[in-house]
Design goal:
Two copies of one chain form a homodimer.
Chain A: E1 2-12, E2 15-18, H1 20-32, H2 35-41, H3 46-59, E3 65-67, E4 77-79, H4 81-109
Antiparallel strand pairs in A: 1-2, 3-4
Helix pairs in contact in A: 1-2, 1-4, 2-3
Chain lengths: 114, 114
């Protein structure tokens, strides 16, 4: 009933380069191969998803998501090498911080109502 | 220019028992000895601060903030022993998770634009 949730944000100046929503989108694009499918799965409009991808791409030295235009690949999107590395590093931040937070969290739980 | 910020949330069922705003308020009450002063310092209305205190108190086995009513102590508020312990544990979650996240964060920084 009591849970601890982190929301890590990577700020590039005042812009949120990465946060839980953007990273879930990144993961969804990697899995589905399209922005539209990833957006649908997250209950997000295509326009919103496209804007989040655009923001992410602009905050990094190289784009995280590559969009194919025209031809048979039309509508397809894929994570770049940078995108895959950044996704893995964000997930590592989450898992390593969860592990480090656990002892204090267990103590805190003793104070919380059931 | 690039920064990593965690926002740890403690959920009691669906209620946010603790988050960055509530914890800053707790700290402010501990320092100033009144809800009004702590709220002002955080740019928050007294009503909002009072509601946040009420929510926090309800999520724990014992209240985190004790309000004195009437007499010379009127308007004063203080952290209880539970309040001080919970505040310290939340700050420990933040600092230990920051430290644990740092290696992956340093790697991620290399991908971010300057």
């Amino acid at each position: 009933m009591n849970t601890l949730k982190p929301r890590w944000r990577v700020l590039h100046g005042e812009i949120i380069a990465l946060g839980p929503g953007k990273v879930d989108l990144l993961e969804g694009i990697g899995q589905s191969g399209t922005i539209a499918e990833a957006a649908r799965h997250l209950g997000m409009s295509y326009t919103r998803a496209w804007n989040l991808v655009h923001t992410m791409n602009a905050c990094f030295k190289a784009p995280l998501v590559e969009m194919e235009r025209g031809g048979t690949g039309r509508g397809h999107a894929a994570l770049t090498e940078t995108g895959r590395a950044v996704l893995a590093l964000y997930r590592r931040i989450e898992s390593e911080s969860d592990r480090a937070a656990d002892p204090a969290w267990q103590e805190l739980c003793q104070y919380l109502a059931d």
